[in-house]
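Translate sequence into structure tokens.
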Amino acid sequence: MYLFALALRHPHSPIIIREKFAILNKRIDIAYAYFNQKQIPAFILSTCNRSEIYIYLPHNNLDEIIEWWADFCGENPKELSKYINVYENEQAILHLFEVGCGIDSMVLGETQISKQIKDAYLTAQKNKSLNSYLHAIIQKAVKCSKAVRTQTDIGKFSVSFAAAGVLLAQKIFSNLFEHNILFIGAGEMMQTISAHFCAQNPKNITIINRSQENAIGMVNNRLSKYADKIQIKPLTDLANTLHEYDIVVCCIEYNNYIIDKSLIEKTLKLRKFKPMYVLDLSVPLVIDSNINDISDIFLYNVDDLSHITEQGQNKRLQAKSDAKSIINQHLNQYLEWQKHHASLPLIQQIQTTMQKQVQECLEYAHKQKQLGKDDDLVLAQSMNKFMQLNAHHWLQTIPFLTTEQQKQLQNYFDKKV
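Result follows.
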């Protein structure tokens, strides 16, 4: 069996490609159903910056998987092939470890990815799509991530998406406490982002979401100290109230644009063309990128934040080196476990064979005893029969061992002698 990681990720694919081929969480059970039907062990990791599939295949032909992925998203497989990164076996394991530690993130050392892997692991377990090796790899990746974050400074100087988004907003509106802010969405990422923006004490805060219950949960979990100035509205109110907000932050899964060019044009007229800062962290994007052509609109997405998150990169280079050292240690530990785990069926087979041989020798000894033979002679003949049975297996096996394996076997017998 071959382990593969198929990764569509920043910065190797632009956001327009990542959104086309995003494996959305609301459809992830359908994706797992395909792999289960094909009896392919699989683990899917889907975030705003990456869609990755880890699978075990009996062959190294990935065309069928790439075609399925493209078809799943209603897109062309040739386009997906241009941007996808493929890792095999040990490199696939190393890649997941680096992802979990924030080595492969847009923000070096960012912490959110670790929880996203844990959540994705729970989803895969629910769908019963993991084999013993994928279970072990993911669990080791989580442990490796914890070790890196506790033993290095990789996250010490990081600038998160949320902080970068606030910095950009401050370049447009120097005093955020004078402005109204709108959050569209109430998921985990939005909860983190909203906390950063609300720390700037904006004038008024509104949350628009399809689920009022989730919006209330977001307030209770992260924004309770701002509750007196927060309004919660349904998504259907967006078009009629958008003009009230100077800052709009969006992070939501949606099939179509929720803000298009015509809506922005109407909104700006109602605002008398006062500038708006719009941040779309959704994948796929839910705000029409064509509104960037309109004056007084400052639209950004996750890729636009990368130049800010790169600040402090030099300070993290040593921490990154330390992190890679820890990652290699955990990788070697996993590979040792894998080697042992892979040999278990053979060990069990050897034990079964030995037990059969012992039973044969006991039966042989019993028959010889019934014939009235001396105890010492029975023991010697039984031992000789046992050695003959084992020698037969060794003589059949040794020619097929590698030179290194034969050398190790010779060393074993030398020590025994």
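Note: The chain has 16 helices and ten strands.
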